[in-house]
Amino acid sequence: MAGARCPPEDVDLPHPARAPPAAAADLVSDDDRSVAADSWSIKSEYGSTLDDEQRQADVLSSCNFPAPSDCSSDKDEPDDNEVEPSMLGLQSYWDNAYAEDLANFHEHGHAGEVWFGMEVMDTVASWTKNLCTSMSQHDVGDDVPKDLSSWSVLDIGTGNGLLLQELARQGFSDLTGIDYSGGAMDLARSLATRNGFASINFVVDDILDTKLEPIERQFHLVMDKGTLDAIGLHPEGPVRR
């Protein structure tokens, strides 16, 4: 789920020509709109091109942004470091994004985007493997598994689940991904089955209102690529964080 999607450098991306509704304009900066629109028009490494202008308008028009007074007290001092709310913090944005990706998968077999690019994903997976291997080889506690296949891993906001597939290639086998978008989980399961990783477990779950029972399921490693970013970009970001 959720961080800003970075477009390839060699793609000339148009800026949206359609202005957002007035209700969203006060809460979404020009830079945020540009990032969000670019994420729709990006041509992924799997060849998926998305209709940015219409999708952006649809998402914005469906947003019910609360008034600024709903997000913070009038007595609170403004935080100069606080980011502006963005559509990237809304579940409706990601539901629409993954609905499009799922349709592209069924029609063309496209996997969708590799979050932050293949090089970054490979680096994260390799670094994670090296970290866990090092901990397994040193006596850091009885709770640390002695081999990668015994590490239980939870990926929060897993999206299309491609990072978990890469971890599986690195030797991990007890892998679970959660995302609050049902479309994301449908896509992740389809991709994992197609690529030979049907054992990866994908669950629709909101980390802020999780239904995972800690007594029944515990994890040695919890990962997040951008869920905290999305939480912070919600109009109620400070409260949700």
Name some characteristics of this structure.
241 residues; alpha/beta; Rossmann fold; 2 domains; 4 strands; globular; protein-lysine N-methyltransferase activity
Short description:
The chain has 241 residues and is of the alpha/beta class. 42% of the residues lie in helices and 8% in strands.
Characterization of the model:
- It is a single chain.
- The protein is α/β, with parallel strands linked by helices and 241 residues long.
- The protein folds into two domains: 22-113, no CATH class; 118-224, Vaccinia Virus protein VP39 (Rossmann fold, 3-Layer(aba) Sandwich).
- Helices cover 42% and strands 8% of the residues.
- It has helices spanning 22-25, 30-41, 52-61, 68-71, 91-108, 118-137, 162-170, 182-194, 227-233, 237-240; strands at residues 152-156, 174-179, 201-204, 221-224.
- A four-stranded parallel beta sheet has the order 3-2-1-4, covered by helices on one side.
- Helix 7 (162-170) links the parallel strand 1 (152-156) and strand 2 (174-179).
- Residues 1-29, 33-53 and 65-75 have low confidence and may be disordered.
- Residues 14-27 have a biased composition (Low complexity).
Topology:
Layout (H helix, E strand, L loop, with lengths): L21 H4 L4 H12 L10 H10 L6 H4 L19 H18 L9 H20 L14 E5 L5 H9 L3 E6 L2 H13 L6 E4 L16 E4 L2 H7 L3 H4 L1
Helix pairs in contact: 2-3, 5-8, 6-7
Protein name: Methyltransferase domain-containing protein
Pfam family, one: Methyltransf_31
Organism: Colocasia esculenta
